[in-house]
Design brief:
- The chain has one domain: TIM Barrel (Alpha-Beta Barrel), CATH 3.20.20.140.
- Helix content is about 50%, strand content about 10%.
- The chain has a 5-stranded parallel β-sheet.
- Helix 1 packs across helix 2 and helix 5 packs parallel to helix 6.
- Keywords: Lyase.
Length: about 350
């Protein structure tokens, strides 16, 4: 297959693969308006204020540009994709998603988002695919909405914008939703959110609570909790995708395995029990990683080496990290054409059934 989309760098028009970007953000304007109401209430979680207070309140050109782009599913987004040689985006509701909304509003926001995404996919099937949102605090309606989104609307997975008001997906309340995703054979995309409650304070006072490091700390913790809780042993068909090259976990695989084994042997923590395999092996058996926000060859090559090249796929992180040079940098990765076909296209097609 030869790509036909014209990008902004020489040679893109003749590449032997499609570029499928797999962590690309969207939010309906109505959901952004709900976020503004929470901010205006004066009673919002500090992490939410850190995140959406900046993007919805700052006059700086960068956050203003992000907010202008994030609610578009039409020509402006397609033009940005063309300008950077992105053939297809896998769209999903941006952080903090439904997680900060009350139960009724979360249900409404998920349905609205899924309908809008399905309409965009129907209008541009060669350019878009999408993941479903649900309201996580009501498992029965979440399961019904996920089923509708997948089986009626044709969406390709479930977006989970990390913790739900301080609770993580290893909590028993969320098991039925994850079980439904496994039964539907669709992946769960675990996406960062800001640290919850007072936990954010030491990060925020140093200016390190967002994408610079706080997101990795929060979402790396979340993914590791899912692993060490035995969630994947109880749901062997559950598939998870995580961005930013696994939020640092690949670098710590050996240490995590070593310390987990010592904790199991000592019985130090009630939460740490024996698993069917070493914690690192779940990164090779149940979890896929994307390069969103991490367009750095040494990190990409290391991650491919330790979890397997078939576990690492391309993502841009549009519109938060929308840099044409980063696409060119990943085009220049020192891999064969066959490896690049898989990296940019094949893995995404298999994982999301595109």
């Amino acid at each position: 297959m030869t790509a036909t989309t014209q990008g902004g760098a020489p040679g893109w028009e003749s590449r032997p693969y499609l570029r499928i970007a797999t962590e690309e953000a969207y939010a309906p304007q109505e959901v952004l308006d709900e976020y503004r109401k929470i901010l205006d209430s004066g009673d919002a979680d500090p992490g939410f204020v850190s995140l959406m207070g900046y993007f919805l309140g700052s006059e700086h050109p960068q956050p203003r540009s992000v907010m202008e782009k994030i609610s578009s599913l039409g020509e402006s987004r397609l033009q940005d994709m063309d300008a950077t040689g992105i053939d297809k985006q896998v769209l999903a509701l941006t952080a903090p998603g439904t997680q900060v909304l009350d139960v009724a509003t979360a249900k409404w926001a998920a349905e609205l988002t899924n309908d809008r995404l399905a309409e965009a996919v129907a209008a541009h099937p060669d350019r878009y695919a999408a993941l479903a949102a649900v309201g996580f605090e009501d498992s029965s309606s979440a399961i019904a909405e996920l089923d509708r989104a997948v089986n009626t609307l044709g969406l390709k997975g479930l977006i989970a914008n990390s913790h739900v008001k301080g609770r993580y997906l290893d909590h028993p309340d969320f098991f039925p939703i994850l079980e439904a995703a496994a039964d539907l054979d669709v992946p769960v995309y675990l996406h960062p959110q800001t640290l919850p409650g007072d936990v954010i304070k030491p990060w925020q006072e140093a200016g390190l609570d967002g994408a610079v490091w706080g997101f990795a700390a929060e979402t790396g913790l979340h993914l590791l909790r899912m692993i060490t809780s035995g969630l994947f042993d109880r749901l062997p068909n559950l598939r998870v995708v995580c961005g930013h090259l696994g939020e640092g976990l690949p670098f710590f695989m050996s240490r995590i395995d070593h310390m987990h084994a010592k904790q199991v042997a000592s019985g130090r923590y009630e939460a740490i029990k024996p698993l069917n395999q070493r914690p690192s092996e779940y990164l090779k058996s149940h979890i896929w990683l994307t390069t969103s926000g991490m367009p750095w060859e040494p990190a990409i090559s290391f991650t491919r080496q330790v979890v397997g090249a078939d576990r690492v796929m391309y993502a841009m992180d549009y519109p938060y990290q929308f840099v044409a040079q980063e696409v060119a940098d990943q085009d220049a990765l020192p891999y064969s054409d066959g490896e690049k076909v898989d990296f940019f296209q094949g893995i995404a097609e298999r994982v999301f059934k595109l």
